[in-house]
Every structure is written in C-alpha cells, then in structure tokens.
Amino acid sequence: MPRRRDARDLKPPPFQYHTPATVHEACSLLGSLEDAKVLAGGQSLIPLLNFRLARPKHLVDINGIAALDRIYERDGGVAVQALVRQAAVEDSEVVARICPLLSSAITLVAHRVIRNRGTVCGSLAHADPASELPAVLLALGGRVVARSARGERTIAADQFFVGVFETALAPDELLVEAWFPASRQPSLILEESRRHGDFALAGVVRADDRLALFGVAPTPVLADPRDPARGLEPSGDLEATPDFRLHLVRVLADKAFAA
Amino acid sequence: MNVNGVEHPAPIDPRRLLADHLRHDLGLTGTHVGCEHGVCGCCTVLLDGEPVRSCLMLGVQAEGHEITTIEGLARDGEPLHPVQQAFHECHGLQCGFCTPGFVMSVVGLLARHPQPTAQQIEEGIAGNLCRCTGYASIRRAVSRAVELRAK
User: Which chain B residues touch A if contact means CB-CB below 8 Å?
Assistant: First the structure.
C-alpha cells in the first residue's frame, strides 16, 4: 500500500518552483527573484539539493521552454542551446562533423543514463573544475551567450570560468547557448579516473596547438604544452595527492602531443 | 504523467523526487533508491523510452511524459521481458537490490544498440553499481538478452 506522504521523504530543502514558458519569462524571473537557481538537466543541481548542500529559495525550471534545444552550425562552429541534452550532442551528426572533439569529450561525461538528462550548457554553468566540457570550451576558445532582462552578451571561455563552481554569469542571467569552434586535427581529450564515468583525477584537452587542463585548478586552465604543470598547485584528496595530479598532467599532456 | 500505461496526477509538492513519488505515492516499490545522488543507478526508469535517474528528477518534471518502471516491463502473469528472463537465466543478481536499475539501463542500452559490442555492454552497465559484485553474470545476462530479443 502507498504510504502516507511523509515530510521525511522530501529530500530537497524548501524552494519555490517556477516553470517559465519562454526565455523572456525565465529572465524576468531571474531578474526579480532573490536567490534563484536555474534547473536544466538537474544532474548536478538535484544531488546538491538532495544532500541540502544547496538551498536556493527559488528554482527556475527551464525544461518547459520551447525551442531551446537546437544544435546548429554557426560562424564556423557549432552552437548548442540550453536544453540540449548531452546524449543529443553525443549522437549529433552536426557535432561529429564540425567539432569531433566535443563528440568524444561527451562520452567521458558520467554515463549515458546521466547524459540522457544532463545538458551541455548546464555543465558549463555548473563549472565543476574536474568536468570535461568547460575545459573543451576553453581549449577551443569557445564562447557562451548569456541573456537577461537587461539584454544579451557573449562571454569568451577564458573570461567565463571564475572559480570553483563559479562563473561570470550574473544572478539574473540565463546561459542560453554555448558556441564551440570547429575542432581541427589533432584534437583530443585524455583523462585519468578511478572508474569509467567518474570525475577525472586530472585531464587534458588538446585543440590543435592549445592545451587546457581540468581537475588540477579551481577552473579549467590553459597551459604551455612544453611545461604543462608549471605554476599549478592542485589540491589533494583521498583519490590523488597533489604530486600525483601533477604527474598525471605531464604524462597526459605528453601523450596528447605525441599523438 | 503516464506511468506504465496508466495516467496519474503529478505530485502536489514540487520537492517530491520522481523516485519517491513512484515508490511512496504510487506504490511502485520496484524502483529502488540507493545513493540518492545519481551514482548507484538503482532508481533508473525510462522517461519517454530513455533511461534516466528517477532520484535526479522532480516528480513534477514528469508531467506530460511517459514513465516506465520495472513493473511496466511484464505484468503479473505475463512472460518476463527478455531482459528480465536473461537476468533470471544467467543469475544476473544475488541480493537483487540493484536489479531493477540494471534491467532498466539494459533495456535502454539494447534499444539503442540491439547488437552491442563487448565495450558497449560494459559502458552500458558502467553507471550501475552491484554491491554483490555480480558483474560477470550481469554481463552474460546482457548477451543473453540480445539472443532472446532476436528470437
């Protein structure tokens, strides 16, 4: 028999739930509400809510917005809108043709079941320092488009990632689109993780002659391929010591540039 | 929302996770809840045919969508779904806690790759944890499910 509804079974902390139907409506909500978070795929935000590590007063769920799930060719690259699931990018012929680096990086993001729901723009906005897609955007010199009631602006990848889980997005801005330049050969992503689909202990993205690192600094960082570990001070945890992370960076960068 | 072919109202409280809504409000306790943060895969269900974590969705987000849980694969008295039959034949379970999640993930995997390679099988079940560590049997069960589906 179904049990009676029980407060103990409500894992997320209290929030006001908003379901805008348009980008315009989402932006006016973000502009007027205090302490609001955008809910897209939810594969990072909902775990934080379930553990009550995040306690936003308002959730602005953008999943009901129509026509925000396109992948399309633009300015010699590929644009990915805010509601495009990672699985759609993985299966996209446009992405495979224009930016195969993004296609291969996507397969390292968690597992297919997570990618069925998780979004590319959500990964970028979440800005986990150990995640792949921010480093791919940085290595390629991509950009994101942020919209608010005040207007629209484009933010370059090297200006976007500000700190651990922190971006240049203002509280009233919605990341509506990410733009990845075409990846030229040789481009590849390499990472070391304990198990397939886990967050990387350290990883490297090579885009032609550019190198970006992830998992070794508060944000993804560009590095000199000849001396990739210079100036890095990675943190240590149960999974890897700082020295081991530096070692991984050198080995993975060597491999990436030997290819 | 439509759950296993039956229309149900969405939960009243937006804080209700889809997994908890299925279990506690609809009594569909076949969907298991393990880690509650998307790592273990026990709560995997199909959302419009694609496997997703029901602990990482709010119940209200399923409004207007079709959900299939383990109970929806084969009704009482009906023959088991080929993936369930394969897990049964190959002993793809020990304690069984992870099984509903594995089965739903494999249903999704085989819908996408009807003839999966060994690597596709491994990646297809990599997002589910079995604490009895029955992975070798589970892998065999996936291969057997491929055969059963082809029949």
Answer: 12-17, 20, 24-27, 36-38, 41, 44, 47, 50-53, 55-58, 60-61, 105, 108-109, 112, 122-124, 126-127
